[in-house]
Amino acid sequence: MAAGSEQPSAVDGTLLIDWYKVADRALEYETFLQTYPTSNRAAAVKEAFGVAKKYVFYGSPNTPLFDNKTQMISEEAAIAYENTLSEAGPEQIEASPLLTQLNDFLVLLEKNGDKKTQAVRDYLKSLQVPGTP
């Protein structure tokens, strides 16, 4: 988790890290919270996890996950997320709520032509990611 403080994820609404690292950081926060739920750092990590999860599923204001005009998912993000899931494997996906949500998200996107349809919006809303509509 030290990498998060060495290189910020975003500045002025623009992601500074690639989509693979976006997912990786969120997973690091989730793992910390699962491993050390009573840590004195848990509250701060939980807050950071909320922000990281927002980046995973929405992007940032100046680096959105979906193109504002076409509503298509960023190709780079889709590839990074698919690689993240492939590297994790079924057991790790099952053990991680974040990876399970990401897997379900990509399956839904595939069914919807990689486009942010109403079904995709409804799924995102169901995740109840902090700081999102």
Automatic annotation (TrEMBL):
| Domain of life where this protein originates | Bacteria
- What's the name of the protein? Uncharacterized protein
Q: What high-level taxonomic lineage is stated for the organism?
A: Bacteria, Bacillati, Bacillota, Bacilli, Bacillales
